[in-house]
Amino acid sequence: MRGLKLIYLNVTFYVFFFIFSLVAIPTLSCFVTLCVLILPRRQALRRLRRAISWYGAVIICILPFPLVRLKYKDYNQADPGGPYIFVCNHRSASDPFLMAVLPGELIQIVNVWPFRVPVLGFIAKLAGYLSVREMPFEDFKAKTIKLLREGVSIIAFPEGTRSRDNSVGQFHGAIFRIAMETRKPLAPLCITGNELIPPIGSGLLHPGVIRIHRLKPIRWEEYGALGPFKLKNYVRQIIIDEVAAMERCT
Amino acid sequence: MGEQDIIRMVNEVFEESFEIPSDELTLEANIFNELGLDSLDVVDLVVALQKKFGVTIRDDERVLTIRTLGDIYNFIQSIKSEGGT
After folding, report:
1. A230 and chain B in contact, CB less than 8 A
2. Can you give the pLDDT at residue B62?
3. Torsion angle of alpha carbons A130, A215, B33, A182, nearest 10°?
4. DSSP character for A170?
5. Can you give the pLDDT at residue A121?
6. Does some domain include residue A150?
């Protein structure tokens, strides 16, 4: 039964993923071209970023349903203000698609490889996604600060790579230094349940429930007195504690 | 400056600049994997070490080979024995 579910999930997901992408990507490209031609640059970018979120939402919420379910809990409903710097733990290649649950205009800080994915990499680059390893810190800082000033939230996976044992790895401090400089709120985002959707080194999706908890933002008033090293470990500990609590409940 | 002075002063840098508890500061502690420093923290570390020991190590390529706290103790000791400024 388990084997049948696995086969059913992967066959249906990848068939529909292929068909959907075949339709959605050219449509998205036409939509973007049209936006660029008729709208000011800022508006065109805003729509492109939202379109990427819709694409991600279909990929992660609809195509693998009901064998992969997504449960999103927002502990920040009372505070819609932004932009935020979202800080996430990183377990799976599906994490970037999960970011579709977040509202507003967003860009992700990615590793080198997503930009090398045909078509999707190009669209991500066009939308202003940043590859932190491909530029000096000062350039990265300038671009990130500009985006935050334009009201664009930033999504970062400060572990830099996927966890191989579900633990939360050491954090890189770049995004926390930018938070300190811009005084923008840091929003921890905790993800569990997707370590096998798909596992590292495989494209095979396993049935399961993915849980995402968006925690209350940590504001400048709370973190301003900390140095960048202490801040990254402070946020890391919050994520570690929440991930542990989420896993105890499953 | 003796070996114990160097160890004490380097540990003070880690405690003051990064607020790392002294019980984590062991000879074998990997400054990246165990103590959690990243490349930007290393820049801060170099600045703090320069200030603490009154030496210039920013352009020293040996900094790039440092992995453990023990490497830092040895590095500072060799700088000091070379009469580095």
Report:
1. yes
2. 87
3. 50
4. P
5. 86
6. yes
A229 contacts in chain B (CB < 8 Å): 17-19, 36-37, 41, 44
- Domain of residue B43, residue span: 3-81
The answer to whether A229 contacts B19, with C-beta atoms less than 8 Å apart, is yes
User: For the domain that residue B15 is a member of, what is the CATH number?
Assistant: 1.10.1200.10
Across the interface, do B17 and A227 touch by the CB < 8 Å criterion? yes
Angle at alpha carbon of residue A192, lines to A190 and A198, rounded to 5°: 125
What residues of chain A score a pLDDT lower than 70? 78-80
Instruction: Specify the CATH number for the domain of residue A138.
Output: 3.40.1130.10
ipTM: 0.77
Provide the residue range defining the domain that includes A155.
Answer: 68-249
Dist CA A227 CA A231 (whole Å): 6
Q: Is residue A27 one of the residues assigned to a domain?
A: no
CA distance to partner chain A, nearest, from residue B36 (Å): 6
Q: What is the pTM of this model?
A: 0.89
In angstroms, how far apart are the furthest CA atoms of chain A?
A: 55
Domain count for chain A, please give it.
1
Select the residue from A135, A140, A159, A170 to test the B interface by mutation, using most B Cβ atoms within 10 A: A170
Q: Tell me the pLDDT of chain A averaged across its residues.
A: 91
Number of independent structural domains in chain B:
1
Q: Give the pLDDT confidence score for residue B85 in this predicted structure.
A: 52
